[in-house]
Write a structure and sequence with these properties.
Blueprint: H1 3-6, H2 11-43, E1 52-54, E2 61-63
Antiparallel strand pairs: 1-2
Bound molecules: zinc ion (ZN).
Zinc ion (ZN) binds next to loops.
Length: 81
């Protein structure tokens, strides 16, 4: 007589079966979560170019696209207009 036939129909057996399914479900869901998170991390574009740079005149942090420094009002030659 196996444990399965011995405890068939009893409440502890049903709790054990349902608990086993829940644990397996949670493990599979966690693994899928890790896989999807890793895929999203790999898909993210590697464009990490800085949005700001230092003004050559006052050394303040200014946006890359700025044509004039907001701190010292110097005109920036590198600006793309
Ligand atoms: Zn400046």
């Amino acid at each position: 007589m196996t444990l399965r036939t011995k405890f068939r129909g009893s409440l502890p057996y049903a709790v054990a079966v349902i608990g086993g399914f829940l644990v397996a479900y949670l493990i599979v869901a966690f693994v899928i979560f890790l896989v999807i998170r890793q895929i999203n991390r790999l898909k993210r574009p590697a464009d990490e170019s800085p949005a700001t740079h230092d003004c050559p005149f006052c050394l303040s942090d200014i946006p890359v696209k700025a044509s004039r420094c907001p701190h010292c009002t110097s005109e920036l030659k590198t600006a793309a207009v």
